[in-house]
Amino acid sequence: MTWWERMLSSLLEWLLTIFRPRPAQPSSVPMPTSGSSLDEPARVLNRNVLMLVFDPVVDAETGVRLSQSEHWQRVESLVGGFMDDILRSSAGLVRYQIAERININAFPQLRDGYRYTAPSYLPVLHGTAPPHTPPEADYTAILSEYNILARVAAGRIDEVWIFAFPHAGFYESVMGGPGAFWCNGPPLSNSGASRRRFVIMGFSYERGAGEMLESYCHRVESIMLQTFRGSTADGNLWERFTRYEKRAPGSAACGTVHFAPNSLREYEWDNPEPVQSECYDWLQNFPAFRGDVRAVNARDWGGGEIRSHHTWWLSHLPHVAGRTHGVHNNWWQYVADPNRVPP
After folding, report:
1. Is residue 264 scored above 90 in pLDDT?
2. pLDDT > 50? residue 328
3. pLDDT tens digits for range 106-122
4. What pTM does this model have?
5. Cβ-contact 66, 59 below 8 angstroms
6. Do 193 and 66 fall within a single domain?
7. Are residues 107 and 139 in the same domain?
8. Cα separation of 296 and 80, whole Å?
9. Average pLDDT for residues 51-77, to the nearest whole number?
10. Average pLDDT, the chain
């Protein structure tokens, strides 16, 4: 090679070092993989509750309250059992505590301003007079009277539990706050001052802990439906979780609140006929399903007893670390805190 050829070769080599694309440097931030991960922890949620108990005096001479007059449940017993059920069903991830209890010696105001009195209510309760219409309670009045929006905004409470009685006009659950959505009842209007979403549960001390769980389970259904609203096909794990044999033959999973895996009609939690279901796969292996399909029937969820079925169903909700298709594998974080549901 001549001197000129060697100089030309060196010049070309130098030019290549300048214009050759540089290799990509490794990033310190891992790239997302379809919104899935295994390391994001399943967080424990401590939730503070404001409890409003409407239990008016119905006999002024004796001071007897409605719950005593009708020999209904003690609120303390209902609340204790309910919170224990949620704690166990969520594998310890949801821990409710009563931040404040307010006992109210009055009937709640209804949407048109009407209030029952003991003389007008007891005939309705006993079926000798028709109930007032419209029947809905005035949630706006309750939000104002008990300063609920400010309490939520300040972080003093996370949700509200109202205990009342038949014809009191409360939904099983409703949601308020910015971006509130259907939660087994219409979202509360004019509630954005709370600065956070919050749920108001409507319970009845005429009923038992099983019915409290039913109200909560319908809350679960509404919130998880919203959480997965943008998911389709295999990405909609909520749709898969709620399959039962009648609706999805051969693909039963955990069913819904009203339909166990083998139910043929609503509330049929006592059907002895076995069906093949992947409910154990959900309980033990989610999200890495292993094809664990077994024959199940009413014995698996308590033989037809409402409380047993609902705690069984709730305990199958995913409650582990990580995300799948962008949704956390701990579904309880959405159920207990709707602010975590994407807008």
Report:
1. yes
2. yes
3. 999 999 999 999 999 99
4. 0.88
5. no
6. yes
7. yes
8. 31
9. 97
10. 91
Instruction: Assess if residue 22 is contained within a domain.
Output: no
Q: How confident is the model at residue 37 (pLDDT cuts 50, 70, 90)?
A: confident
Total count of domains within the chain: 2
What is the 3-class SS of the chain, one letter each residue? CCHHHHHHHHHHHHHHHHHCCCCCCCCCCCCCECCEECCCCCCCEEEEEEEEEECCEEECCCCEEHHHHCCCCCHHHHHHHHHHHHHHHCCCCEEEEEEEEEEECCCCCECCCCCCCHHHHHHHHCCCCCCCCCCCECHHHHHHHCCHHHHHHCCCCCEEEEEECCCCCCCCEEEECCCCCCCCCCCCCCCHHHCCCEEEEEEECCCCHHHHHHHHHHHHHHHHHHHCCCCCHHHCHHHHHCCCCCCCCCCECCCCCCCCCCCCCCCCCCCCCCEEECHHHHHHCCCCCCCCCEEECHHHHCCCCHHHHHHHHHHCCCEEEEEECCEEEECHHHHHCHHHCCC
Q: Is residue 62 part of a domain?
A: yes
Cβ contact 231:325 at 8 Å: yes
Nearest to 258 by CA among 220, 212, 287, 217: 217
pLDDT at residue number 15: 36
| Same domain, residue pair 192 and 238 | no
The angle formed by the CA atoms of residues 282, 284 and 287, to the nearest 5 degrees, is 55
Both 49 and 144 in one domain: the answer is: yes
Q: Using one digit for the tens of pLDDT, what is the confidence trace for 177-207? A: 999 999 999 999 999 999 999 999 999 999 9
For residues 210 and 89, is the Cβ–Cβ distance under 8 A?
A: no
Q: Which two structure tokens, joined as six digits, stand for 141?
A: 């009045």
pLDDT at residue 143, rounded to an integer = 98
Cross-strand partners of 162: 52, 202
* Omega prior to 287 cis, within 30 of 0: yes
> Are the beta carbons of 174 and 186 closer than 8 angstroms?
yes
Average pLDDT over residues 307-319: 98
Quick check: is 207 in a domain?
yes
Range of the domain at 185: 45-227
Whether 18 maps to a domain, the answer reads no
